[in-house]
Structures are given as structure tokens and as C-alpha cells.
Design a protein that fits this description.
By secondary structure, the chain is of the alpha/beta class. It has two domains: about 230 residues, Glycogen Phosphorylase B (Rossmann fold, 3-Layer(aba) Sandwich); about 170 residues, Rossmann fold (3-Layer(aba) Sandwich), CATH 3.40.50. Helix content is about 40%, strand content about 15%. An eight-stranded mixed β-sheet has the order 3-4-2-1-5-6-7-8, with helices on both faces. A six-stranded parallel β-sheet has the order 11-10-9-12-13-14, sandwiched between helices. A hairpin with a 2-residue loop joins strand 3 and strand 4. Helix 3 packs parallel to helix 4, helix 9 crosses helix 14 and helix 12 packs across helix 15. The longest helix has 18 residues. The protein is globular and about 65 Å long.
């Protein structure tokens, strides 16, 4: 292999990434789909993305995209094909079903033109997985679904209204998306049993962990705290990211009631935000902040004393929060109020950067936060394990290299297209 082929290994390949979430979304699955597509474009591939209108985590379509039916744009060498879909302002099984159906119908009616060499789909979107499978079958090319969440399990575990009935439907869609895949990527080994239960051959499963997609903090911590109005000496417990049902964020509201001396910060958006604000009932020690911009996101995380990740007790094997990679980069200790046997707990233990407490137990969460507050040197030492863990296991280079290896394996000796 020549030096040029080494740096552009997918020259003259045509790749299609199907992901309901994509840039300019800054949190959740969008950044991973974006960086993957842009990486492959830089590696010589003609890369197309089939996606929706930006809407996450606010569950409102971005203002600049409102009123659009379809669109095509070029972002960092990637051709992005956008299709309009329903965005539910509140979550229920029926609304989620219509969201998925609208994504599937519009994307299936208007797929990107041309025949790709391989299709990569990002799931938790059931529609994305089904569309990826259909497009790959139509053209007789490999399909690589990447399981970020198991939606069948999510419907059963997240507490969404009507979730039990939706679980069977979601599981059937997942089986369809995965059954003929050339390879199935999972972001954590805790997903493997669920994927096996959907009938996937274990020889086709590859673990491809998410990487950190943010930069290390660079601003002065005291200056950031002053800008945010966080007084020196006040303990700040911060949760960043989506405010949905599966996060079980009521536990933070209850902690704030128990501990008026601790400032609880909920930074982000989501369909439960307004309900949480109402339940907070004007507590003076709770702040609701909008999502931080990419330029100061990790600076805000690093300015907090403790970072919280919370999940409902029923959430076991369907989700590993993408926020963890950003938390670890910040260098602050993590307190995880999650089920001990789930993938999130596994990741916190593996990092050495946090402590685990029982889910939905505000007193246990408060006790852990107070112990860290009482020993700031130990808290700093705990948080310092996060960047080390990221450097060793979760770097962008390592994450993208795993996908390169997976794509190379699947493409095998398939002939390349003539140079354009």
C-alpha cells in the first residue's frame, strides 16, 4: 500500500451513512455520525448522509431548518440529504411511533441517488436501521448497523407511556435491521446479549465504543464559575445532556430539596425539561441552563464540583449515555445514580473516575456528593482518572480506527469504482 493509499484508504469508495441525528446537533448521537462521515470523506470516500432536520435535544426543529421539506447541503466534504419528519414535543409510545414512521416514510420515498458500496446506519433510530437495511438490500451491498441504544429494551425500561406495547414492535424492527447485516457494531459489550437475542450471529458482532468528541477544558475554572454566578465555596452538582424519561432526573430535584446548600444545575434540553422545572417549584438552589456551546462546553463541566449521571432503576441494558465521554474529559468526579448491573455502571467502574449509588435514591446521591465535598483532594484525584481513561481508550483516533477496520473488513476485496 502506497503512502497515499494509507492516508486515503477509501479512495473511490461510495459510502452512505443513515442517521436521524447529524450536525449541527452537538449532543447525543449526532456528533458521532458527523465525525464518522467527515472522517471517511477525508479518507477519500464519496460520503453521503441521509438524515432528518436538526431537533435534538430540544425536540424542536432548529429555527433555520423550519418549514423545509427536503434539503441537500455540503458539510466538510460530506453531502447531507435532509428529510422532514414529525418531531414530538412530548414523548409517548404513539408519538415516538409517528416520529419513527415519518422518518422512515420520507427517507424511503426519497433516498439519496446512486449506488453506495456500503451502508452504515446509526441506531437508536429504528427508522434509520430499517432504511439502512432496505437501501443495502436494494443495491446488494453490505449493511453495518451501529447499535447505540436498543429501542425495544428502551421502550420496556424507560417508563414511556405505552412502552410495553411498543417494545414488541421495536424489537421486530430491530430484528429486520440487524438480521442480514454484514456486521453489527455495538458501542458497549453490555449490548451483546440483547443483540444476540435478536438473532444476530455472534461472529458478526463487533464492539466499537464511542469516543470523546469534545476538547479538553482550557478556561480558568474560577473565571468560569464567576461568569456562571457559582460562588466560591458553594458545591455545584451538574447534570448535562438530554432531559428525558429514562434519565430519571427527579432524583436531582429531590436532592435539591434535601440540601439547600448545594447548587444543582440541569444544563441541556429535552421533553421533560418543563415538567422538571415545574416540579422544582422555584427552589432557589436549582438552575436550568441551556446547552453550552461547543466552544465552552467542557469548561462549564470542569467548573462544577461533581458531575451527575442518572437513570431510572429499570434502565439496564439499553443505553450507555454518550455524556460520559465528555464528563471524563472534564477531569471532575462523576457520581452515577444508576443500576449497578447496567452498562453505565460498568463504564464508570472501568474509568475509575466516579462512584456509584443506588438509582432513584436522593439520600444516597446526596451522601456521595457530601463525601466528595468533604475531601476535595480525593475528589480531584478521582476526577483526574477521567482524562487518563479517555487518552488510553476513548480517543477520537482510536474510535475512528475501529470503524475503519470494520469497514475494511466488510468491504473485503470488493472492486473499487473508477477514479472520478
Amino acid at each position: 500500500m502506497s503512502a497515499d493509499e494509507h492516508h486515503r484508504p477509501f479512495e473511490n469508495r461510495r459510502l452512505l451513512v443513515v442517521s436521524t441525528n447529524y450536525a449541527p446537533e452537538l449532543t447525543g448521537i449526532g456528533p458521532y455520525a458527523t465525525q464518522l462521515a467527515e472522517h471517511w470523506a477525508a479518507s477519500g470516500a464519496r460520503t453521503d448522509v441521509l438524515t432528518g432536520m436538526p431537533h435534538y435535544p430540544a425536540w424542536r426543529v432548529d429555527e433555520q431548518y423550519r418549514g423545509r421539506w427536503r434539503g441537500q447541503e455540503s458539510r466538510e466534504g460530506v453531502t447531507v440529504h435532509r428529510r422532514r419528519h414529525y418531531v414530538p414535543p412530548r414523548q409517548s409510545a404513539l408519538r415516538r411511533a409517528w416520529f419513527e414512521a415519518s422518518v422512515l416514510i420520507h427517507g424511503t420515498l426519497a433516498p439519496p441517488p446512486g449506488r453506495p458500496d456500503a451502508v452504515v446506519s446509526q441506531m437508536p433510530s429504528l427508522a434509520g436501521g430499517v432504511m439502512g437495511a432496505r437501501i443495502a438490500r436494494r443495491h446488494g451491498v453490505p449493511h453495518i448497523p451501529v447499535v447505540q441504544d436498543l429501542m425495544g429494551a428502551a421502550a420496556a425500561q424507560s417508563g414511556i407511556r405505552g412502552g410495553g406495547r411498543a417494545a414488541a414492535v421495536a424489537g421486530a424492527a430491530e430484528r429486520y435491521a440487524l438480521r442480514d447485516a454484514a456486521a453489527v457494531g455495538v458501542i458497549h459489550e453490555s449490548f451483546v446479549p440483547g443483540v444476540l437475542a435478536l438473532g444476530v450471529d455472534p461472529a458478526r458482532i463487533r464492539v466499537v465504543p464511542n469516543w470523546t468528541h469534545v476538547e479538553r477544558p482550557s478556561a480558568d475554572r474560577a473565571a468560569t464559575r464567576a461568569r456562571l454566578g457559582w460562588r466560591e465555596g458553594t458545591q455545584v452538582l451538574l447534570h448535562s445532556g438530554n432531559m428525558g424519561l429514562k434519565q430519571g432526573l427527579d432524583v436531582l430535584i429531590e436532592l435539591a430539596r434535601l440540601a439547600p446548600d448545594i447548587r444543582v444545575v440541569l444544563m441541556g434540553d429535552g421533553n421533560q425539561r418543563e415538567g422538571l422545572r415545574e416540579r422544582a417549584g422555584g427552589l432557589p438552589n436549582i438552575d436550568f441552563l441551556p446547552p453550552a456551546g461547543a466552544d465552552d462546553f467542557t469548561d462549564v463541566l470542569a467548573a462544577a464540583d461533581v458531575l451527575a449521571v442518572t437513570q431510572r432503576a429499570s434502565v439496564l441494558d439499553m443505553s450507555v449515555p454518550s455524556k460520559l465521554t465528555s464528563y471524563f474529559v472534564s477531569g471532575r468526579p462523576v457520581v452515577a445514580s444508576v443500576a449497578d448491573e447496567g452498562g453505565t455502571a460498568d463504564e464508570v467502574r472501568r474509568s475509575g473516575a466516579g462512584v456509584l449509588v443506588a438509582p432513584e435514591d436522593p439520600a444516597a446521591l446526596l451522601d456521595a456528593v457530601r463525601k466528595l465535598a468533604g475531601d476535595p483532594e480525593a475528589a480531584d484525584a478521582l476526577g483526574a482518572h477521567g482524562p487518563d481513561y479517555v487518552a488510553q481508550h476513548l480517543s477520537r483516533e482510536a474510535g475512528l480506527a475501529r470503524f475503519d477496520a470494520l469497514l475494511t473488513e466488510v468491504l473485503g476485496d470488493a472492486p473499487r469504482r473508477p477514479s472520478r
